[in-house]
Amino acid sequence: MGCLPLPDNWVLDNGKAAMSGPGNVNVQANKAAFEAQQRTFHEKNDAIHQAIAATYAQANAASDRMHHRFVNSLKDEETVRNPGDGQRYQVQTGANPYWMNSNGQYVPSNDPNYDPNHDPRLNHQTWKKTDIED
């Protein structure tokens, strides 16, 4: 028995037919579904990791604030922020408000009507009211 010769383009034509047939459509649909499932999985996984990291950061920040408050209570200090330069300073506790100049010097006061900007004893410097931080 002999072999019949195949036309030169038979393999190419049959390969194209197989790739465009109904079986290949299923393969492509399965691949697209799998890729969509993987994207969804990765998006959910990333969201979970971000939530865990945010929770950890919040807990860590809360712990830092509690520690800072505890140390302030031991030292009898308050933390204020200079409104001029944004820096934080430790001041002796007991006044509200505190006034600060551009050099980081502060004037404590318990009088809500006191304004060191009108006090001639303070050499006519500019003083800004600060807030006590938590």
Automatic annotation (TrEMBL):
- Which residues fall in a compositionally biased region of kind Polar residues? 89-112
Origin: domain of life:
Bacteria
Q: Looking at the record, which segments are called Disordered?
A: 75-134
Q: What is this protein called?
A: Uncharacterized protein
Q: Where is the composition biased (Basic and acidic residues)?
A: 116-134
Top-down, what is the taxonomic lineage of the species of origin? Bacteria, Pseudomonadati, Myxococcota, Myxococcia, Myxococcales
